[in-house]
Amino acid sequence: MAKTDSKGRPLVAITGIGMVTPLGQGQDSNWQALTAGRSGIHRITRFPTEGLRTTIAGTIDFVEAEPFCAPALSERLADLAAEEAVEQSGIGRKGDFPGALFMAVPPVEMEWPQREALAKASGQNGDITYPDLLTAAASGQFKTWHDLFIFGSVADHIADKYGTKGSPISLSTACSSGATAIQLGVEAIRRGETDAALCIGTDGSVSPESLIRFSLLSALSTQNENPETASKPFSKNRDGFVMGEGAAALVLENAENARARGAKILGYVLGCGEKGDGFHRTRSSPDGAPIIAAINDALDDAGVTPADIDYINAHGTSTPENDRMEALGCTAVFGERMSGLPISSNKSMIGHMLTAAGAVEAAVSLLTIRNGRIPPTINYNVPDPGIPLDVVPNHARDAQVTCVLSNSFGFGGQNTCLVIAAEPK
Amino acid sequence: MHDVVVTGVGIVSCAGEGVEAHLAALTAGAPPKTNGDLFPPYQVHPVAPLEFDRQIPKKSDQRQMEPWQKLGVYAAGLTLDAAGVKEDAELKSRMHLIVAAGGGERDYAVDGQILTGLRDAADPGVFLNERLMNDIRPTLFLAQLSNLLAGNISIVHGVTGASRTFMGEEACGIDAIRIAHGRISAGQADIILVGGSYNAERADVLLIHEMGGYLWKKPFASVWDRPASGGGFILGSGASFIMLESREHAVKRGAQAMARLTAVSSDRSRRKPGSVREALAKAWSTIGASPSATVFSGATGVAGITEEERDALAKLAPQARIHALGDLIGHTIEAQTTAGIALAAAQIQQGTTGEAVVTTVGHCRGEGALRLVKA
């Protein structure tokens, strides 16, 4: 067996995955639901939705977190995903993961229930201002909220529990964060800094304010009547993304080490590519050049050609802009082949899990390879004539898939692509 | 392995704009500019006035950003100028970017009005929805997102290789350098712009750190002297970026290297008494620092860990000059490590010292050190 890739670098194997999505917990139940074409999108019950333009999301309501807030839920989701992945990999010992932690976490800040508690504790009966909140903070009774709402805590707690080695990396590249976590793990293994990496993307940040922020940018679908059908990537009547929550974890290992310890190798991350875009804060360069460059960078890094890719796990957010630009980019890279190359969007079922999306979709890409079955793009009833692609409409399809391109794009000009394969090239 | 060199630095803080102003302030040794009137009883080190037009020419770009982003984009621009790459569009299009960032900011007036209204609202949830829908500026979100400092650097300066944003207070500042150093050493990248920014003149960041009891509320005192009176930090507004590249890449484009970054060590100890002292000793030996290195310390002034750092340095570097960054620019959290590198590289270039160590000890987690020598 090859120890190195086509460029002479250590091969990076995947030996464990774990996930929790709006469709459920664990890779088995998720795979069943994803290939059955089930939607995890529903009406929001976590908070009142009166007055909101969007009242649906893929919130995770079956996991408890205390106190309930984005960092606490994100940590719980990451923990569940990590536990499954580490167990599957069989690596290390409990609480002693022999490698680094790279973790995509949502940017956090204090939330309204906490602000309200501070306002109440301030004793201010007139107009509340920040000096009142500071007075309450100075009492010392809110000490635990400091740790709860600083940016490094979620990863630090996970590092503590799993015993990962070194300083954990908390990162954000917006909606490509999950893919970046994997990329950082791949690079660290290739550098020989570590033989294993726990790469996680997590996001449990659906709250009134986070939803409203996206809403005010007109990014969200407002097709609230039938929540299950709102996310319709590549359809002509798509009108925005649906927020989702969840997490995925991948155990990456130097393949030689994984084999030596007798681990079962599930697949390989052959390559990672990225390219920045300075065109606009939320929009892609109209010519698609950065998306094209990111895909080509990933293929090149993997040592494969466009002909080697037999399925694309799309970013496919269901926004008018993303799906058009992604189709344009893919068509530029894959040329005439694109019309027959299957490309589907998991987000049609689980929504856009933001910080977690890239990691979840990488895990699903691996399951696609291992099961020889492509999850569909559901809710595809009105094709967009401008996007003449094989989106694997509505029903899963059996197919031999050996090499997948997984795309992730985000606000701030973030474009990250991964190549995941059954075997080394 | 490739040598990693520093070919440009940019810094803004209460000590002024540019590395010369900071070196002059270091020599003068006067206490940093402090403002206690903005948020009494708290003090902050306000950033020196800047002409943002000089680095962010378009007013439309400036309007899209909040101060933490403007400070960062400004310092990134100074660094691009210093490294002689500002006008090289081709190079910037393949230049990578690692930003150490927090996030924010809030609309303080809106938050206050909502909290006041929530108290008597018949249906608080519905009231909150209405107010947020109507009162938040749509673009504020983009001024809050952590990765949008990097995004704005891409837009304003055309640095579009690809960006990654690390979060996690002080530790992510040194981790950004560690990862950049690792990638360049291993040939995974040729040139990376690394840095961070912090706006301390914000009630919401004071709030988060006051909840934890970390703020210094007495008149300014050196970080080393604070633990005796309870300890704490004074937040500083500022930003710092450095250009890291492989020696081959720098030589090829005729760039002057200021200093060589030889090694970076960062780790997390499960904090208990003595762990910071041990972690620094371990980092010191990992990076191969000598007892006479000049030290740029990121010590916060927080009780316990500050004395441990002082004790560790007294043992590791008994003959060293030790500069506390907090006594020069205040505590800029994620941006503190790159500020230390900027000053260390400049001193090495000047010949003031031949070897420098920058330490990072986070106020609640993360310990590390890095070493710079003559290029």
Describe this structure in words.
The complex is a heterodimer of chains A (425) and B (375). Chain A is an alpha/beta fold and 425 residues long. Chain A contains 13 helices and 15 strands. In chain A, strands 1, 2, 5, 6, 7, 8, 9, 10, 11, 14 and 15 form an 11-stranded mixed β-sheet that branches. In chain A, helix 11 links the parallel strand 10 and strand 11. In chain A, helix 2 (70-89) packs parallel to helix 6 and helix 7 packs across helix 13 (357-371). The model of chain A has no long low-confidence stretch (mean pLDDT 97). Chain B is of the alpha/beta class and 375 residues long. Chain B has helices at residues 19-28, 59-63, 67-82, 89-94, 108-120, 124-135, 140-144, 148-157, 169-185, 203-211, 247-252, 275-287, 305-316, 326-329, 336-350; strands spanning 4-13, 16-17, 35-39, 42-45, 96-100, 162-167, 191-198, 235-236, 238-246, 259-267, 294-297, 322-324, 355-361, 367-373. In chain B, strands 1, 2, 5, 6, 7, 9, 10, 11, 12, 13 and 14 form an 11-stranded mixed β-sheet that branches. In chain B, a hairpin with a 5-residue loop joins strand 13 and strand 14. The radius of gyration of chain B is 20 Å and the shape is globular. The model of chain B has no long low-confidence stretch (mean pLDDT 97). Strand 6 of chain A pairs antiparallel with strand 6 (162-167) of chain B, so a sheet runs across the interface.
What are its keywords?
heterodimer, A: 425 residues, alpha/beta, Peroxisomal Thiolase, Chain A, domain 1, 15 strands, 33% helix, 18% strand, B: 375 residues, 15 helices, 14 strands, 41% helix
